[in-house]
């Protein structure tokens, strides 16, 4: 992206041609005709991008400025290359030396400052993501990084960009440039002194504004409590100040400095950034001041970890957010394990795969090979995976006391509903009927998949539809879909119960955005919200909780509510939420004792 924004020679326009019949190529600095309107066009490109990033609702299409930058760079760079080629003076070395001298100075400074801010304010997961971006940026492979994420960045169905509409800004920019410097718009608007200067610093503006906006939000997540000096407009003004300073004092001096060591030193500096970013990506906790402080701090006690009123400092709030690997201690199922091979039932009707393949179905196991002591199969999405730490605690306790412990198998797929709206559900019901474990635990994030947004009069068709992971009402699901999901769920769970399998179903526990501790952080203070009410949540979600509870009861299954372990009566005391709906490793391992009965059922039934 940086290549598309500013280059030293292009900021002065195209080159004047030399007589091609000269006996030897002229390698002196190439003469040029400066077009101030091209710098002014840069302003027309960068300002919408800045406004879009700061106030996306105010200018939702501001990102089209990036397309204008591409046109400008294509016009100017290609013009320079064509002229040099005609004169016989073009060399790749010369081209990249100019690129390095123009792009690297400001980029290096911004990367260093960004890394320093990340060290101060980011915890390991976000710092790792930032380090990945820095590494890709320093190696000029950000495009490959975006593609590797597999998040459909370039082909979002709901976005018209990129697409034919992108031709409007690009063709418009092309026509303005083609009109020439004497065109009215170019002369009186784009050649304005202010527009020209903003265009000159547009590259610096583009680099500075985004990290400032991001870290302002990171420091003050709650927009209502954000002070004026951390507001987006203030960050934009600060980026202007830093851009002017960088352009005048850094870029200007290096542009006038003709030492042969400038380019090698800039390259070495970028390589150093890449090495540091790679180290931070590999071990992010060692590059996070918050993580280091957490490691040196005394662990929060049981009461503190569940009582929001005890979280009064930034470090305590961030410690409540700290998370570990849920699957620590598990092993992957053998490829020929019955838990995998038996999940191949012929699905009686087609399913639409509405989600990307980035979340494959997983099969993990605790205490493999001890099915004689009982078998427990845990089905679901990430909420099934979230239960692993508690089961590992029980396994460790049993190992220490030399008590027999059942084999626990986790068949889950993140962000997928293990419900009758998904093929995985039918396949794993077939697997359970084949394996016949002593106990089954179904844990899914109900509120995520039951969010009907289709008209009530929409005709129902099999199979029932589930929403995906956007947490918004989906147009493909209506109330009939929800009703059929619970009817099918009840029928399938009842089949398991009649096979003698103890069935447990995890209820939808209360969750609200204010449960996430990082929303409480405001600068150097923490503002803890009032505890939430379980009864109020149940009343609000009764439309799907009531049929869920009825289906579980009719299937002779047992309903488990995790909130029983982190509530005081009707008051939910949880502060250890991650992502708004997950429990972190520490809380699950120490406090989710409601799961103990599931292991006991698997063990007792095997006796």
Q: What would the keywords be for this entry?
A:
Rossmann fold, seven-stranded mixed sheet, three-stranded antiparallel sheet, 16 strands, elongated
Report on the structure:
It is a single chain. The chain is α/β, with parallel strands linked by helices and 607 residues long. It has two domains: 2-291, no CATH class; 331-342 and 359-606, Rossmann fold. It has 24 helices and 16 strands. The protein has helices at 36-54, 64-87, 92-121, 124-138, 142-149, 167-178, 184-190, 193-200, 202-219, 232-256, 262-282, 289-296, 302-306, 314-321, 338-341, 382-385, 388-401, 423-435, 446-449, 479-498, 534-540, 542-554, 585-591, 596-606, and strands spanning 14-15, 32-33, 331-332, 362-366, 375-380, 407-412, 439-443, 502-506, 521-522, 525-526, 532-533, 558-560, 567-568, 571-572, 577-578, 582-583. Strands 3-4-6-5-7-8-12 form a seven-stranded mixed beta sheet, with helices on both faces. A three-stranded antiparallel beta sheet has the order 11-14-13. Strands 1-2 form a two-stranded antiparallel sheet. A hairpin with a 3-residue loop joins strand 15 and strand 16 (582-583). Helix 3 packs antiparallel against helix 10. The protein is elongated, with a radius of gyration of 30 Å. It starts with 13 loop residues before the first strand and ends with a helix. The model is unreliable at 1-31, 300-305 and 347-358 (pLDDT under 50).
In short:
By secondary structure, this protein is α/β, with parallel strands linked by helices. 50% of the residues lie in helices and 8% in strands.
